[in-house]
Amino acid sequence: MVEYRYLGNSGFKVSEITYGNWITHGSQVDDGAAVATVHAALDAGITTFDTADTYANTAAEVVLGKAIQGQRRESLEILTKVYWPIGPMGPNDQGLSRKHIMDGINGSLKRLGVDYVDLYQAHRWDYETPIEETMQAFADIVRQGKALYIGVSEWTAEQLREGAALAAELKFQLVSNQPQYSALWRVIEEKVVPTSEELGISQIVWSPMAQGVLSGKYLPGQPVPEGSRATDDKSGAQFISRLLRDDVLEAVQKLKPIASDAGLTMPQLAIAWVLQNPNVAAALVGASRPEQIADNVKASGVKLDADTMAAINDALHDVAERDGAKTYEVSPKGRPGA
């Protein structure tokens, strides 16, 4: 079964393998398959589910809401986000203004069919809205009982520090950050992780398998497999294209004997690697088929010894991105839909 970790400096626990429905529900797979994967996740012991209003332009939240109908609400941890344009994408249908946050939480609760979410997250930093306005809105949502905890996604170390200070002033906790993190994308290690450890903030990491590249299914010098994420614009093909270089793919192939020696599949090794970082509370995994969930959850509780970690790091040393400056390039410098 899946193990649990505390989220930040709080008493709130999440399953260290968390189900995310970014590019599956409402777009990549039909609703029946989506519901089946959620039920497979529940059967495997996953109780934490991450979504966002922007995924499939609100459709992903609707599908997740249908999938969790009939489940005991208190036994689930439901996470969603606000920031990116949704709906008709008008001037106030985006960003972290008080208006959009208040409209956002009410819309998410309705689509998910719940009275509250466990974690409400700022999906990026909004350069066009005063952070004081944003954090006051989050504080009010917590006091209204519509969200129990507040998190963010892809904030820099300085942004986390500023947000945490305002949260403390407003008497609520900023408990999490949701960045991209994998053995190939390590940019948070330089500043974001040390700052988060100091502030009592955990990472909920997305793309621990580097968009599937760390699964080993993409081979150097070979065309990408038909039906894979790399061939489907709806499944994040634009995100994976930068990794489909022969030098990266050749380095990833060196992980196969390491995974075999550890008694793991390549996806399990990738997920287990991010979970070795004590600041990581959860690794987000998605699935288009139930059997993928059954494989991924076996990474929970895995302890990789020092020699295995060293072998992984050595294999990927020349291709892993570690430049902490990349954390400053994620949030749009203007309103996203403007």
Describe the model.
With 338 residues, this protein is α/β, with parallel strands linked by helices. The protein has a single domain (4-329), classed as NADP-dependent oxidoreductase domain (TIM Barrel, Alpha-Beta Barrel), CATH 3.20.20. Helices cover 35% and strands 13% of the residues. The chain contains twelve helices and ten strands. The protein has an eight-stranded parallel beta barrel, surrounded by five helices. A hairpin with a 6-residue loop joins strand 1 and strand 2. Helix 1 (31-43) crosses helix 2, helix 4 packs across helix 5 and helix 5 (157-169) runs parallel beside helix 6 (192-199). The radius of gyration is 19 Å and the shape is globular. Belongs to the shaker potassium channel beta subunit family. Keywords: NADP, Oxidoreductase. Residues 16-315 form the NADP-dependent oxidoreductase domain.
Quick tags:
338 residues, alpha/beta, TIM Barrel, two-stranded antiparallel sheet, 12 helices, 35% helix, 13% strand
Q: What pattern of helices and strands is seen along the backbone?
A: EEEHEHEHEHEHEHEHHHHEHH
Query: How many separate domains?
Result: 1
Taking all Cα atoms into account, the compactness measure Rg is: 19 Å
CATH superfamily: NADP-dependent oxidoreductase domain
In the CATH hierarchy, the architecture is Alpha-Beta Barrel
* CATH uppermost class: Alpha Beta
Number of helices: 12
Query: Helix content range of the residues, please?
Result: 25-40%
Mean of residue pLDDT values: 93
Spans where pLDDT lies below 50 across 5 or more residues = none
Overall strand count: 10
Inertia-based shape: globular
Q: β content, as a range?
A: 5-15%
What is the CATH topology assignment? TIM Barrel
**How are strands sequenced across the largest beta sheet?**
3-4-5-6-7-8-9-10
